[in-house]
Automatic annotation (TrEMBL):
Residues 18-78 form the Transcription factor CBF/NF-Y/archaeal histone domain. SUPFAM superfamilies: Histone-fold. Residues 109-130 are annotated as: Disordered. Forms a complex with DNA polymerase epsilon subunit POLE3 and binds naked DNA, which is then incorporated into chromatin, aided by the nucleosome remodeling activity of ISWI/SNF2H and ACF1. Does not enhance nucleosome sliding activity of the ACF-5 ISWI chromatin remodeling complex. GO terms for molecular function: DNA binding; nucleotidyltransferase activity; protein heterodimerization activity. GO terms for cellular component: CHRAC; nucleus; pericentric heterochromatin. It comes from the Eukaryota. Its main location: nucleus. Residues 112-130 have a biased composition (Acidic residues). Signal peptide: none annotated. This is Chromatin accessibility complex protein 1. One of its GO terms (biological process) is nucleosome assembly. Heterodimer with POLE3; binds to DNA. Component of the CHRAC ISWI chromatin remodeling complex at least composed of SMARCA5/SNF2H, BAZ1A/ACF1, CHRAC1 and POLE3; the complex preferentially binds DNA through the CHRAC1-POLE3 heterodimer and possesses ATP-dependent nucleosome-remodeling activity. Within the complex, the heterodimer with POLE3 interacts with SMARCA5/SNF2H; the interaction is direct and enhances nucleosome sliding activity by the SMARCA5/SNF2H and BAZ1A/ACF1 interaction. Within the complex, the heterodimer with POLE3 interacts with BAZ1A/ACF1; the interactions are direct.
């Protein structure tokens, strides 16, 4: 059970969680439905969050290219969010990174496509009136 201890607090007592409880309390309080937070609920939420992040990192490492490089990268996490049904809800939070030049090119192509569609729509309307 010693590995459940993440560190020590200011008094030297063992801590059960690594995440700062004050930050978690602020996040939980930001919900309009929450009026007060029980200390046990706060600690359980922190521990559950730690376990979730650990599971996400382990899964991404095992199923990504991390094993080859012995490192976990952002792209491993974003691939997991995109490809795994379990982590699909994270796809908006962990989007795939693209180069700015690639994004600008995609934006220009979309703009050109929209202009083409607008000009086609306008010419169809003129023909219909004649």
């Amino acid at each position: 059970m010693a590995d459940a201890v993440a560190g020590r607090d200011k008094c030297g007592e063992p801590r059960l969680v690594s995440l700062p409880l004050s930050r978690i309390r602020v996040i939980m309080k930001s919900s309009p439905e929450v009026s007060s937070i029980n200390q046990e609920a706060l600690v359980l939420t922190a521990k559950a969050t730690e376990l979730f992040v650990q599971y996400l990192a382990t899964y991404s490492y095992r199923h990504g290219s991390g094993k080859e490089r012995k490192a976990l990268t952002y792209s491993d996490l974003s691939n997991t969010a995109e490809e795994s049904e379990t982590f699909q809800f994270l796809a908006d939070i962990l989007p795939k990174k693209i180069l700015a030049s690639k994004y600008l090119k995609m934006l220009k192509e979309k703009r050109d496509e929209d202009e083409e569609n607008d000009s086609n729509d306008g010419s169809d309307g003129d023909e219909a009136e004649s």
